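Quick note —
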Amino acid sequence: MLDQGGTSSGRFTVWGNFNTADGVTGNSTFTFNLTVKSGVGAGTSYHENAHFTGSLDPAVDPKVAFDKTRCS
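Predicted structure written out below.
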């Protein structure tokens, strides 16, 4: 819901990393956060967190992988 002036404000943050020691296996983590607030106090927040660990060969399934989102 926007206020009568139609103003909102917010912020977002993105962070990611990638690691490999041998070029064969590796891991990566990614986070994304977004918050939006209107002038009357209504708002939305969104968070995503993704991770994988395992082989870097696209033909091989990773050992651990998830992509979790939350919106409120």
